[in-house]
Amino acid sequence: MDNDLLELAILGGRPAFEEKLHVGRPNVGEKARLLSRIDQMLDRVWLSNNGPLVQEFEQKMAALLGVKHVIAMCNATIALEIVTRALGMDGEVIVPSFTFVATAHSLQWQGVTPVFCDIDPETHLLDPVCVEKMITPRTTGIIAVHLWGRPCEIEALTEIADRHGLKLVFDAAHAFNCSHNGKMIGNFGDAEVFSFHATKFFNTFEGGAIATNNDELAAKIRLMKNFGFAGYDKVIYVGTNGKMTEVCAAMGLTGLESLDDFIAVNRANYRCYLDGLAGIPGLKPVLYDEAEKCNYQYIVFEVDEALTGISRDLLVEVLQAENVMARRYFFPGCHQMEPYRSYFPHAHLLLPETERLVGRVMSLPTGTAVGKDEIGKICNLMRFAVSHSQEICGKLGKSGGR
Ligand code: T4K
Questions:
Q1: Are residues 264 and 253 in the same domain?
Q2: Is 120 part of a structural domain of the chain?
Q3: Which of 78, 199, 210 to mutate to test the pocket of ligand 1 (most atoms within 8 A of CB)?
Q4: Quick one: CA torsion of 398, 399, 400, 401, rounded to 10 degrees?
Q5: Ligand 1 centre and the CA of 383: distance in Å?
Q6: Is the whole model's pTM more than 0.85, yes or no?
Q7: What's the number of domains the chain is made of?
Q8: What is the rounded CA–CA span in Å between residue 185 and residue 173?
Q9: pLDDT digit string (tens) for 283-313?
Q10: Per the count of CB atoms within 10 A, which of 3, 150, 174, 310 is most buried?
Q11: What angle do CA 20, 325, 272 make, to 5 degrees?
Q12: Tens digit of pLDDT for each residue in 133-174?
């Protein structure tokens, strides 16, 4: 990159990219396969309510994950709500604050109190030692999040849940097609919940799924996601509408056929970023265990301002001005969002690691929408921003610089 500072868009130059590069740009499989499925669906005139595409999608996912039951859902948020109810979790449920707000909202929406728990700064995942400290007589469960697709400390959490008689659910929104000690995510806890939202590496437009090896729980979830109907005119539970539509399942089935390709692209992009940003002081990548199955869908870096000389926020600002739409996932932490901020104004006192991390983390664009050349250019921009941090901070009148 030209060393002329005026090249930076934030300082008045032209953006490095003409079109915006997004985090969460959807992957689409073979369009012809998708359209043919939709065509057949329209001929069948069966559009929702456990149609043949949803059934096929569920069977294929169960085979892929090696789990007894996979129930397709309209999205992961409703799936989490249904699992919470089906397991009878009430009172308080322990969750990380460092997650997408849906994890907490799925509880609050039904009058269950999310109790925010701190994370391990190395893994960004729920810290089992902190979990144990947050347990009260009102605690009924734990919803742990396999953030970035990296598995939680599953054994430690399972042991704690068992010892205290708590339900254990994994929010596996990021962890489709990932494994832990060779076993696929979907097989752990009482149930695991996937998201197939458009921004996930594998999507069904909107969608999600619940995986469980518990027959009774699966049957209950199937009733609950369909208003509690156990046959025509026969309602036996309070239920809601959590059904996946046929068109979403058509997208899912088509996406499954390209799953390996999506992951190969993500992995290549991940390697490209690691190479391109290697050696920049203060930029620490979230690493994936390549010995496990992994989807590499999030490219995440921690920014240590003391070493980079530029804050995470300013680095994101610089990139966005260049049309690289880097994101601050998951700033500022659920405990700093409403209504939790008002309900629990002192929550931050118990969340020192979360508080530290939310100011340092950034996600970068990946997926089939970006390639080697774009990533090379993004890395050069970041290297440039760090090496010229003093000038950038000075020109923008921001504090920083080494
Ligand atoms: N648990 C966890 C841990 C989660 O991360 C999530 C969702 C959930 C539970 C709940 O799952 P769902 O109920 O959604 O199934 C996005 C997604 O909406 C959300 O699903 C996801 N996590 C979260 C991490 O990211 P936003 O608010 O960042 O999305 P948005 O609209 O800013 O989109 C991100 C970027 O993607 C945009 O800059 C443009 C691009 N994009 C997006 C869409 C929808 C496209 O290029 N095309 C598109 O169609 O939340």
A1: no
A2: yes
A3: 199
A4: 80
A5: 28
A6: yes
A7: 2
A8: 11
A9: 999 999 999 999 999 999 999 999 999 999 9
A10: 310
A11: 95
A12: 999 999 999 999 999 999 999 999 999 999 999 999 999 999
